[in-house]
Amino acid sequence: MKEAGSKTAGDKPGSIEWDPWDPWHIRKETGQHQLTSVEFTVTQLCNLRCEHCAVGEMLVAEEGVSIPVERLIHRLDEVDTLQTLSITGGEPVLSPRVVKETIRPLLRYARSRGIRTQLNSNLTLPLSRYEGWVEDLDVLHISYNYRDAADFHRIAFEKYGRDVTPKAAEALFDRMLDNARALSSAGVFVSAETLLSPFTSPHIGQMHRDVAAMGCRRHEVHPLYPSDFAKGMNLVTLDTFREAILTLVEERDPSVWILFGTLPFYPCSDRIEDRELWLRLHQEENITVRQDPDGRNRLNVNVFNGDVIVTDFGDVPPLGNIETDSLPVIFDRWLGHPLAKKYHCFCPEARCTGPNILVADTYYSGWNFRERRAKIRL
Question: Which domain holds residue 68?
């Protein structure tokens, strides 16, 4: 097994040995969950309306007024344990004003504190929009759920509300590929995420090869979250999910780091094939399983109304507001929440901190995770 190491200043975006977004490390070292990661939703604008979008219903045509970045930074100053900062939307790069007034100051602040950063972008905007600030970013996270431009046209504009020509969609798709290659060649750590669905799972091998061809250093694979726009989409069965993972492991480019997030298989499973998969993914080179950050080490802040939630696409109501509460106080409030107590189990012998709430509700609604124990050791 690849045992987790302690963090070092040399671990810029993270590594196989230490992924700073993974709550496992702090839970193992301190015996409790701590707030080490904050995510800001900095825009509700986007030039796409993807069918799988987990925040699609929050997107707007005109942006509201955001909380001054100085106020956001003040709240970050109160988090002594902070290790990572994520920026999401919408499409964060769509508005030059958001980039200038919110994103760049947050990245500079994080750099001054030695905090690692990630920004989620669809990467379809002109390359020039990323220049002048991307060098301060540790991870540029993109979505890749397409085989070709025709797929992109259907998926990215499924909920758009008006017709978009195939030619216009193809231009954006090609720009995304070109931007990924250019930024990767320039030394940017690009991490592409694929959501396993009935559509993507049969093609995961080819999609992985596309990710590698773009120069991405990491390929993240997650379940399709049944939230927001994706609520009506079909989900893969656990058997299909397992088969897709095994196909990807066999066909992967060994130079690309594969990260499985919110994996819907657990070491306490009654099924031997699930336990064997857990073991294999922890033994393969250049593959990691990230424990769920949401509610274990991360909170999400909406910069327009100040609301703080466990995740940017969950159904748990806001836990507080940065206008009245500090983030550590809100995080402690969450740790006392009935849902946290229900799902915050811990099996150190198997390197597991329990399930993602949405995944557990989808696939394991009858399970009491707090009463189960790992049946394997790493």
Answer: 24-333
